[in-house]
Amino acid sequence: MTQPRADILWGGRFSEQPSPLAARFSNSLETDFTFFREDITGSIAHATMLGTCGIISENDANAIVKGLKLILLELEENGIPQDIECEDIHSLVETMLVRKIGDVGKKLHTARSRNDQVALDERLYLRVKIDALIDLLRTCSRAFIEKAEASLDMIMPGYTHLQHAQPVMLSHHLLAYVAMFDRDSSRFSDALWRSDLSPLGAAAFAGTSFPIDREQIANELGFRGITINSVDSVSDRDHLIETISACAITMMHLSRFAEESVLWSSSEFSFVRFSDRLTTGSSIMPQKKNPDMAELIRGKTGKVYGALMNLLTTMKALPLAYNRDMQEDKQPLFDALDTTADCVQMTTELIEDATFNKEKMTVQLSSGFLTATELADYLVTKAVAFRDAHSITGKLVAYAEEHNCQLHELPISVLKTYSPQIGDDIYDVLDPVRAVHRKRSAGGTAISEVLKQIEQWKQYLNKK
Ligand code: ARG
């Protein structure tokens, strides 16, 4: 640190330099430079309010605003200046301002603390990032809907416990993700709604004796209102935790699609193929084509869960109000937001790129007794109680397994020995394609229902 201590924002009462380690240890500029735009936007609103409320002269306010706008351009252009040593973005902007417009710049921080300033910056930043994430999720949903529409002729075995369970339309399976992404978006909007209040004016934590107008700042910055309690305003980080939690849940959903992409592109499944653009090779095994993008989405999920645990733990049991521990909130926040945005985009590319293999899926339809439930349901329509129908079907499955064949390959004579109620119409029932399209309950896998889902999503996404 070459800077004389008295020049530091808070240096007045200090006579000794911080130790080099202490200076480096407490410095957050590399990280919080990320929201320099929000910091300056907040300062412009603050200075304007100081002017209109007569706390500083209009002239001074105008000079400060003008200086801040120039600094914004400079930072946009050049990044972190190398000739100024500052501990965070707030002191950097103020130092640059004083250099640029002289002592008037020193009036900017009137009636404000870095505690409410950083709280404001984070809320402004959240708005930009969450809006962008919601857009990305919408684009991703559209890609899934498009693929669902293009795959209406594909029927696959649906799984429970990763065992063949019942046949479903591939489109139906894909649309499940659209429902997840819709809930993810609404979780982000919800977090944003609670965060959408201006904390500025809380000052250090107790409020200020200057006649400030908090509403004016909130209006100018487009918040829906102001926070209600100054202590809470500088202490609260739950809106960040909610946001990271929404990221974590989104990542959990993406990781499930990623896992299915890995599994389905294996030679055991071969349900899907990804192009060279989204796969990688092995440095030793020339034949390999690996689904690394999907694996990385799966892997990055851990990082985002970690960010959530990180901030929850940082905030745990912190006494009110501001504590410097809270400076550590930014890295997990930024990382979770950026990682989630990347992974949503990568998922969009994966689904756009995916080529599904109808033949492979069809082959799998004829193993694993996918239509056993159909047989049981059929018996119910012939006045057999469901529990008895279940048991009869179970016995037939065991018989078929023993004889190495599928249910529809059993002759009617055999079927009838297990239940006289079984008639010739059973073979239609055991056909997986017909089975799918009979599932016409609302939200079921019949094509009529799947088309309704597609229509609903399209209308809904176009409205937004
Ligand atoms: N860099 C700090 C943070 O991110 C800003 C607030 C510092 N306030 C203070 N009283 N030291 O939390």
Descriptive notes:
- The chain has 464 residues and is mostly helical.
- It has helices at 20-26, 29-32, 36-52, 58-78, 89-101, 114-150, 170-195, 214-220, 230-235, 238-264, 292-315, 330-353, 358-365, 372-381, 386-402, 412-418, 426-429, 432-438, 447-463, and strands at 155-160, 163-169, 197-198, 225-226, 272-273, 355-356.
- A two-stranded antiparallel ribbon has the order 1-2.
- The radius of gyration is 31 Å and the shape is elongated.
- The mean pLDDT is 95.
- It binds arginine.
Rounded Rg: 31 Å
Q: What fraction, in percent, of the residue positions are helical?
A: 55-70%
Sequence of strands across the biggest β-sheet: 1-2
What is the makeup of the main sheet?
Answer: 2 strands, antiparallel
Q: What fraction strand?
A: under 5%
Show unreliable segments.
none
Distance between the termini: 52 Å
Count of individual beta strands = 6
Supply the helix-strand structural class: mainly alpha
Q: What letter string, H or E per element, gives the SSE order?
A: HHHHHHEEHEHEHHEHHEHHHHHHH
Write down the overall mean pLDDT: 95
The geometry reads as: elongated
Bound molecules: arginine
Please, how many helices?
Answer: 19
